[in-house]
Structures are given as structure tokens and as C-alpha cells.
């Protein structure tokens, strides 16, 4: 079992920045694993945002956040981060971290491919 606990988020003006954190417990990150961030805007389906490999050496981003969001991880702290810069109103959503103990792939995956989820964190960007 893996437990994911998120923190961060909040309300920010357009152009501002926020950082989300996701701490994993209950099981050490496997070398064969995939961490990702998803988000769900009101009235929309949950969508993939970004992912990072188990050693942090490789990342992949959804086109709409490239150049603005940065995913990183600190395996010593079992923590994954999402730094969000130049936020836009369309980034408003509940953000979720997700984990699956399977091989990392450099592409978007649907949410059903992930086994463990954080509790969700609201990010609201005002115009």
C-alpha cells in the first residue's frame, strides 16, 4: 500500500506561482514506478499534467503546461513536487498526484492506469 499526502495550492492571481508537494508513505518508491500529476477542472474529466521517472532523470509534460510547470522529486524524502509558474485562469482545477508501481513511460496516460492517489488540492487562478 502507498499513501500519498498532498500540500500546497491555494488562490493566486494570473501570472503568479504555486508549488504543490506530494509525500508518499507506506512503501519505498520502486525503481520501476511512475509518479504523475493530474488535474480536474469543474465539469471536466481528470486530465494528465506531467510525469517523472523513478530517478527523476526524465519528465514529460502536457503541451499546455510546457515551459510553465516543472515536476521534480526528492527520493530521500519520498516527495514529488509540482512547481507552477505563470499560472493562467485555465489552470484552475483540483490537482492530484498519482503513483503506479509499473514502468515509467514518456507519455500521457489515463487516470485508470494509476493505482494510488493523493487527496487532491485546489488551485484557483484569478484573472
**Bulk shape:** globular
SSE sequence, one letter per element: EEEEEEEEEEE
Write down how many β-strands occur, each being a DSSP E stretch of 2 or more residues.
Answer: 11
Write down the Rg.
Answer: 13 Å
> End-to-end distance, in Å?
40 Å
Structural account:
Strands 2, 4, 5, 6, 9, 10 and 11 form a seven-stranded mixed β-sheet that branches. Strands 1-3-8-7 form a four-stranded antiparallel β-sheet, with no helix packed on it. It has 127 residues and is mainly beta. Helix content is 0%, strand content 49%. The termini are far apart.
Which key phrases capture this entry?
11 strands; 49% strand; mainly beta; 7-stranded mixed β-sheet; globular; 127 residues; 0% helix
List the helices and strands and how they pair.
Elements: E1 3-8, E2 10-13, E3 18-25, E4 34-40, E5 47-52, E6 59-61, E7 69-74, E8 79-84, E9 93-100, E10 116-117, E11 121-126
Parallel strand pairs: 2-11
Antiparallel strand pairs: 1-3, 3-8, 4-5, 4-9, 5-6, 7-8, 9-10, 9-11
